[in-house]
Amino acid sequence: MTITRARRSRGIVTSTLLSAHSVITARIVAIVANLSFMISMVRSIRTRDSIETKLVAQMVSVGFTIIGSQRH
Fold it and tell me: Which residues of 33-52 are buried (b: 16+ CB within 10 A; e: fewer)?
């Protein structure tokens, strides 16, 4: 009886870890995709000096924060 319980609990732990791994992997992929898009947005806007570059970076990050907060 205890061997069956041990196998069952091992199976539950394994399936829980696999599902957690897939969720974490999907989240990391989404973060990397968002960062790549943010970098491309900053690069696509031609700036004349460092102040404008900082303002563009702030604009893009605030825009993504607003979009992210609207999803939840």
Answer: eeeeeeeebeeeeeeeeeee
Task: Give the integer Cα–Cα distance in Å for 41 and 61.
Answer: 10
- pTM for this one? 0.57
- At residue 41, what is the residue type? M
Profile the chain (72 residues) by mean pLDDT over runs of 10 residues. Answer: 61 75 84 86 88 91 84 63
Whether residue 38 contacts residue 60, with contact meaning beta carbons closer than 8 Å, is answered with yes
**Separation in Å, CA 45 to CA 30, 31, 50:** 23, 22, 13
